[in-house]
Write a structure and sequence with these properties.
With 149 residues, the chain is mainly alpha-helical. 66% of the residues lie in helices and 0% in strands. The longest helix is centred in the N-terminal third of the chain and has 24 residues.
Length: 149
């Protein structure tokens, strides 16, 4: 049986993890790293990473990249920005890393997604398009299915 102080500490840790996750959701386009997130939560980087993974099933960095890719997908669907502009708009500093992670999560490179997604989601309201085109986390995208429509 868990002691009351340990249970209370666990609940405080979960609240701090929610604040970290909310910060990532709000500030995804800013330069964030695990050390900065950990400092903001008064935790060590290692402890934050372990606790975040245990609570949410992925590392803080992976969660951040997923948020960035989700926003990039929305910007690419609009069709008025280049892939490079989208990369920097969502907070990525390396086009190569952005393209690699985008392909891992979405299943197609950003340039192909941009070409296919704009026509495929033109008639869908943006709030529904976001749900339908949500990226798959943790490298679950199948490379053999590059078609969006």
């Amino acid at each position: 049986m868990t002691s009351r102080p340990a249970e209370e500490q666990h609940l405080r840790d979960l609240a701090r993890l929610r604040r970290v996750r909310d910060r990532i959701d709000r500030e995804y386009a800013k330069p964030l790293d695990v050390e900065a997130l950990a400092r903001g939560a008064n935790m060590s980087a290692g402890h934050l990473s372990r606790q975040f993974r245990q609570a949410y099933g992925e590392s803080p960095y992976s969660y951040l990249m997923t948020r960035r890719i989700e926003r990039a997908m929305a910007l690419l669907r609009r069709g008025d920005l280049t892939v490079t502009e989208v990369c920097f708009a969502v907070g990525c500093s390396s086009l190569g890393t952005f393209s690699t992670r985008f392909t891992e999560l979405v299943g197609v490179p950003p340039s192909i997604y941009r070409a296919q997604a704009a026509p495929a989601t033109a008639e869908i309201p943006p709030c529904l398009a976001k749900q339908v085109t949500r990226p798959i986390r943790n490298r679950e995208a199948r490379a053999s299915q590059p078609q969006l429509a």
